[in-house]
From TrEMBL, chain A:
Domain ABC transporter: 5-238
EC number, as in UniProt: 3.6.3.-
Entry similarity comment: Belongs to the ABC transporter superfamily.
Organism: mine drainage metagenome
Group of enzyme by EC: hydrolase
Identification of the protein by name: Manganese ABC transporter (ATP-binding protein)
SUPFAM superfamilies per UniProt: P-loop containing nucleoside triphosphate hydrolases
Gene: mntB
Annotated region (Disordered), positions in chain: 242-261
SMART domains (UniProt xref): AAA
Gene Ontology molecular function, alphabetical: ATP binding; ATP hydrolysis activity
InterPro entries (UniProt xref): AAA+_ATPase, ABC_transporter-like_ATP-bd, ABC_transporter-like_CS, Metal_Ion_Import_ABC, P-loop_NTPase
Keywords: ATP-binding, Hydrolase, Nucleotide-binding, Transport
UniProtKB/TrEMBL annotation, chain B:
Membrane topology: Multi-pass membrane protein
Record keywords, A-Z: Membrane, Transmembrane, Transmembrane helix
Protein name as catalogued: Manganese transport system membrane protein mntC
SUPFAM superfamilies attached to this UniProt entry: ABC transporter involved in vitamin B12 uptake, BtuC
Biological source species: mine drainage metagenome
GO cellular component terms, semicolon-separated: ATP-binding cassette (ABC) transporter complex
TM regions (residue ranges): 6-28, 40-59, 65-83, 95-116, 136-155, 176-193, 223-242, 248-266
Cellular location(s): Membrane
Family the entry assigns: Belongs to the ABC-3 integral membrane protein family.
InterPro entries, alphabetized: ABC_BtuC-like, ABC_TroCD
GO process annotations (BP): response to zinc ion; transmembrane transport
Amino acid sequence: MSCDVELHNVRVSYDAFCALEGIDLCIQHGEALGIVGPNGSGKSTLLKTIAGLLRPERGTICVFGTEPRRLPRGTIAYVPQVEAVDWGFPATVSDVVAMGRFSHLPWWRRFGATDRALVEEAIDAVGMTPMAGRHIAELSGGQQQRAFIARALAQQPRLLLLDEPTTGVDAATEEALRLVVRGVVGRGTPVLMTTHDLERVDEWFDRLMVLDRRTLALGTPDEVAASGAYSAIREHTHTHGHLRVDHDPHEGHEAHPEVRV
Amino acid sequence: MIHALLAPFAYAFMQRALVAACIVGILCSMMGTYVVLRKLAFIGDGLAHASFAGIVIAYLRNIDYQLGAAVVAVLTALGIGFVHRKGKVSLDTSIGVLFTAAFALGIFLMSRQTRYTLDLQSFLFGDILSVTRGDLIFIVAVSAAVFIAAMLAFRDMLFASFDPVVAEAAGLPVKWLDYGLLVALALTIVVSLQSVGIVLVAALLVTPAAAAYQLAKRFTPMLLLSAAFGVTSTVGGLYASYFLGSSSGATIVLVATLLFFIAVALKRLRPA
């Protein structure tokens, strides 16, 4: 079967520091992939590379059969982990979500009724309708996160990339997000989502990737659990808090043999 | 009474000055919205000083000084963008390096002239009353071009100003929007030089938009409010300078500053 997103032997570096190495991946239509791993394991780097924000030093990336940067406008929606925006920017929740439509609107097209309807629908999907007219600075962290997810939904992307959307949100929001993700996947849009620590991964994702600069495991949540790679990562994260899992590249490979489907 | 109030505009030079003041007031303050939101206040000063080199070169080569100023300001703007991206230095640093270089080049070229008749005063402080018919055509043409480009790129520019990373991931040409904004700002500044001068043009780019930022909750109202503050400053300043016998450029900037502090006060008074 052909892949919507295909990575082959991808290596990404920041100057001298190698963030990702030897990544092979195939994401199929309507598939939700969870990417887990400790801080500094390259999860965000992987999403940014697929989004076309970073160029791989080696290897190839194909999104819908082409390089990410050559895709038509609006193909990819990316929700970063930390929004580095100016919270004093004069914009309400509706204004921010409306930006999701901009990539589909060339200068000669008006922001029409369809666009407005999609914006309202996206705001509703994340449960932000009562806050639609609020200025973005008046929102809590979780509400801001939901507004940015709504912007991604309004874009109606063919690929959705979410970087740790569950960090710092309450249980109810987390469940709402899960339903949003499953809804998007159900319409055939592949979703790649990183997560630091999440219970019930099997209810979120079709497949799971355990990442620590290299792929430690890749398979269904059950297969990954059986491999021991995920629990080893969780052990480390829990024991050492923010620390990354340090291991010898070769030793690591043997300790967590890759599971592939 | 009415007659006395309209008296200044009986003169042709005042009529031209009024038209220039309206255009410059609106253009600067609307482009200033991006300057304030992207925290680029330094750029106005930078590009204005850089254009000085163009004025000197134009003088030495005996070509139109506005053309010289425009070419050097646009090249400096592109250089600033290039050094920022390729040299991996902050935009602020890039502006600091390049505008002083261009300004120094202007001084260098001028200092080698034993005799010069270039009226520096009018470039440094502006002389809106000396706007000729030809100047006005230049101002209208360039302003129209910048205005149309800004309207066409409106949504993309808004998205890229608010959240460049996500905009780039969504496929917007963020790099070209950045360069385009720098070029548009260079042209805006050149068009405004004659009205307010090299030293003060930055105020027209920053102050009305900063005042609007105090009061507006959404982008389009901020843009319109900024334009209103801008045109009130330029026209009000021009008018006041006629009666006070003061420098028009300085009076315009002082009116803008007054409006800014009124906006700050209004924001504090307004119930949250």
